[in-house]
Amino acid sequence: MSHRPHRPALARGAAAIATLLALAACGSGVTDPADEVSDEGSAAAVTFTNCEREVTLDATPQAIVGLSPGQTELLLRLGLADRIVGQAQTATAPLPEDLRDEAAGIPVLSEEGPPSREVLLDAAPDFVTAPTAYEFTAEQGFASLDQLQQADVAAYIAAGGCAERRMTATVDDLFTDLETLGRALGAEEQATELADEARATLDDIEQRIEGQPAVSVAQVYVEGDRLSAIGAGIEYDIVRRAGGQNVFSPEDAAFADFFAAQINPEELAARDPRVLVFSVHDAEHEQATRDYLTRTFPDLDAVREGRLVPVSGSDVFPGTIGNVRAVSAIAEGLYPEAF
């Protein structure tokens, strides 16, 4: 295996590898569950721990920004459309069809990558949420956590995107995000409903595939002629929850410290996975990936027999209910007879 993928693929892909430079992330947790939020938009102080930072909100946020499509989706499904003042990285993955009209009037702060510090602060948010700490990298020209704090803007990083969780993150980290954001944003009832729906879907998948033999899977990302594999992180857990046995794992040296690595085609062919799962950011990228796999692996059974499962790149970001969609899509690809 060769070196890690570089950032240009990430900004365009909104895919599994799109968080490769989230090296400055933090931890997760929830504190003080008894805090109460009023219906009037003011609140008793709500305090929670996120990425080893203690965050206190003196009032319910009224001007919120989602820094990726997955976070914007979550905010919309929490019923907060009238409080969202910006959405970001919109070109990296489309929102689910049922939300597109609702999101149409929300200002777009950036398309390919996170918004610059100036653009984000010009939107005058009081709360921003992101999948990883990369979105707060000052060296990239983005607003840092410290700069946001100085501007009285609270920030939340998805639990699975924190540094100590990024390599071992699981789908269940979503429930930490729902609990925390529900309290912080005064949307506890909606958050509980979303969590219940997500748990029911995961339970149904588990029951459908119970007793089925594990299917060997390689999860890959293709950008041009660069092939990368996923071997750790929430992406790894998504495949596991779907009944897949990833042919790459944290036990491999290439994934000991990082969840993705650029690989040679020969390495993938040697592992001979029964199914190939690949993340995409739009229909054009999906077709380009299919063309690459067909051209590069004509003798691989997974390719010859059409066992190719695409998932939306935003659905494998930490902190999105798309994680559940990804588990469902992969499970159906692995065990079509069970669905």
Automatic annotation (TrEMBL):
Biological classification of the source: Bacteria, Bacillati, Actinomycetota, Actinomycetes, Kitasatosporales
Name of protein: Zinc ABC transporter substrate-binding protein
Signal peptide: 1-24
Record-linked Pfam families: Peripla_BP_2
Keyword Glycosyltransferase: no
Family: Belongs to the bacterial solute-binding protein 8 family.
Annotated Fe/B12 periplasmic-binding domain residues: 63-339
Alphabetical keyword list: Signal
UniProt superkingdom: Bacteria
Keyword Signal among UniProt keywords: yes
